[in-house]
Structures are given as C-alpha cells and as structure tokens.
Design a protein that fits this description.
about 350 residues, alpha/beta, six-stranded parallel beta sheet
Length: about 350
C-alpha cells in the first residue's frame, strides 16, 4: 500500500483538502500536491525569471513522467469538466487508482461548461463519461447538487459518489460568543475584488446608506475603485488582503453580517464558499445570492439569508431596518451551530473511501 496520496490538479486550493489530510495524518500517510497544467507556468517562470516557479514545474513534470513507469499510486484528480487534457492524463493514469474531485454543480447536457466551445465536445463528453464510470474508483463532490446532477446524467451511480464539503480548522475560527462590541450595524465582504462578486453593488449601496458600515477584505482588479470609495465614505473601510486565518477571524468577530452578492456568469456561479463557513463559525450571519454553494450551507431565515440577485439591495435594506440585538443573536447562534458541521475533524470522516484503499 502507498504511503502517499497525490492530489493532481490544475491549480486548486490545498485548503480544500484539509479533511483528507487530517485522516491521512492519523494513518501516518502523507498528502502531496502536484499540478498538470505545466507548459503555461513554465513559460511564465522563464518570462519573469521566477526560479521557484520553474523548479516547481520541473517537479510536476517529473511526477507526470514517473506515472508511465509506476503503478497503483493513489491519485485524487481535480480537473474542470470536459477539459481536453483528460485524454492525455487518462493515458498517464491508466495503471493507477484514481478518484475524482469536483465542485461543478450542473452536468446536464444543456449546461454551460468552460470547455464546451471545442468542436470535439461530443467526443469529449463520451470520453469523460467512460472515464468517470469505468476508470474512476470513486467520485467526491463538494455539494449534494453536484452528486445529484452526475447521477441524473448517467456519469456515475449513487453508491460511487460521496459528498465531501470543504472544511475549516476549528481552532482558527470557531467562537462560542456571538457578542459584537459595536452598536453600529457592521457588514463584511471577503473575497476577490471582481465584478462577478458583486463588489460594485456593495460600494454603491453603502455609499448611499451611511446607517451601516462595510468592511472589505481582498485583492483584485477593482482594488483601486474600492480604495477610492473607502477614502470618500466614512462607512466604508478597506483592509487589503489578509492571509492570516487568526487575523481574519478577528475581523469576522467584529462584524454582524457577511455580504456576498455574487452574480452568475456564463461559466461560473458561487460554489461552496470557505468564506461562508468561516464567517458563520465566528457568529457572522451570511447574506448571499442563492447560488449552488450558498444554498448547500444556509437555511433561509434561520442561520442566514438567500436572496435572488435582483433583490439583493432590497434585502440589505430589510436587514438594516429590522436589525436588533435579539434577532441578530438568534441567527448568529444558529450560524455557529451550522458551521460546526464543516470542521476538518468532521469532514475528514467523509474521505474514508480514499483512506481505506490507500
């Protein structure tokens, strides 16, 4: 049996595999991350003379090469639906034990896929279906909706799919107190500063509603616009990017509501968000557009709010108007309770289909 489990992905977040790492550590096994999208990153490393990035790609390339001459490695494959690169990876992985990990929520024939533009899409779809049904030992989805869609569209059977949510470390975020020190109603946004995250909506709304305060944390193409609004309006604060989980938790605990007005794009919607469960663990009540991910986490009106995109500003007004310590505390306590389902300790148990084999 292998002492290693490899996550082979494009450029996924290691934090998405905290639960798997936890259960492997308990078995004295190690989780190793490798990437398959190498050529573009090699070119980037040479262009910017980035020695670390160059060395990392050499390691990735060597790993792919060794797959040809070895067998029975345990590999968790994270790759976007119908990516053409699966054909090459399928050859390299032929002698290995492969598990598939996906967050994509909709596998219907008429759904939007990032790689649907290829002329060979019908062949790709057939190849993918064969790969998932015949080669992959087990599929792990991030949401129940993804599992349901895979089954309904005949990509796998129910017994071959497990739902494994993302997780957070209990000690970093979990709070037993829902008390907020400020009497001002405080909202927080954490994430990429891009239009699809609804940043413009938040800036416009809070610039016209000084009754409540908005704190923005993150980085991205709208950074300069956020700084401009923060300099102009006293009730908007920009803290930049915060990498420390401890510092991020401190900010969450100082706020009442998490504002995530995500806007669906042709090939994207908000999936299972780490931000949501981490904020809820700190007693923050989420207000999210009803995309696939938030719908898996939030119970409407109990531990947070799910809102149609076109009604998001109306919901913000309603929350501000109806906010009292009593109504907030009730939802805040429910949010903390909900978040406890997603601790690394609890989620690690859902990866057992891998740990038993590896």
């Amino acid at each position: 049996m292998s002492e290693y489990v490899y996550v082979l992905h494009d450029q996924g977040a290691p934090s998405h595999y905290q639960g798997l790492e936890e259960i492997l550590n308990n078995q004295n096994k190690k989780l190793v991350f490798r990437e398959f999208n190498i050529l573009r990153k090699l070119a980037k490393s040479l262009r910017y003379l980035d020695a670390r990035l160059f060395y990392k790609q050499l390691i990735n390339l060597a790993f792919l090469f060794t797959l040809i001459f070895t067998k029975r490695k345990t590999i968790v494959l994270g790759i976007a639906p119908f990516d053409l690169k699966l054909i090459i990876l399928g050859i390299l992985l032929k002698k290995h034990d492969v598990y598939y990990h996906t967050s994509h929520p909709n596998w219907a024939e008429n759904a939007n896929f990032p790689h649907k533009r290829f002329i060979s899409f019908e062949y790709l779809r057939s190849y993918w279906k064969s790969f998932l049904r015949e080669k992959v030992k087990h599929i792990f989805t991030v949401t129940n909706s993804a599992k349901k869609s895979l089954i309904e569209n005949n990509y796998s059977r129910s017994e071959n799919i497990s739902v494994v949510f993302h997780s957070f470390t209990h000690s970093d975020f979990f709070s037993i107190s829902t008390a907020k020190s400020s009497e001002e109603i405080k909202f927080i946004f954490t994430g990429r500063l891009i239009p699809s995250k609804g940043v413009n909506l938040l800036l416009n709304f809070f610039s016209e509603n000084p009754r409540a305060h908005l704190t923005i944390i993150g980085d991205g193409e709208l950074k300069e616009l956020v700084i401009e609004f923060a300099n102009k309006y006293d009730n908007i604060t920009y803290l930049g990017y915060i990498g420390s989980k401890k510092e991020l938790a401190e900010q969450y605990r100082a706020h009442h509501y998490l504002a995530l007005p995500s806007i669906k794009q042709p090939y994207w919607e908000e999936l299972f968000g780490m931000v949501i469960i981490e904020a809820m663990a700190c007693g923050v009540v989420p207000i999210c557009t009803n995309h696939a991910g938030p719908k898996e986490i939030i119970s409407e009106g109990i531990d947070g709010f799910l809102v149609d995109e076109e009604n998001y500003e109306q919901k913000l007004n309603e929350v501000i108007e109806s906010h009292t310590n009593l109504t907030f505390l009730e939802k805040s306590e429910h949010a903390i309770s909900t978040s406890s389902r997603y601790t690394t300790e609890n989620i690690s148990k859902l990866w057992e289909k891998i740990s038993i084999k590896s």
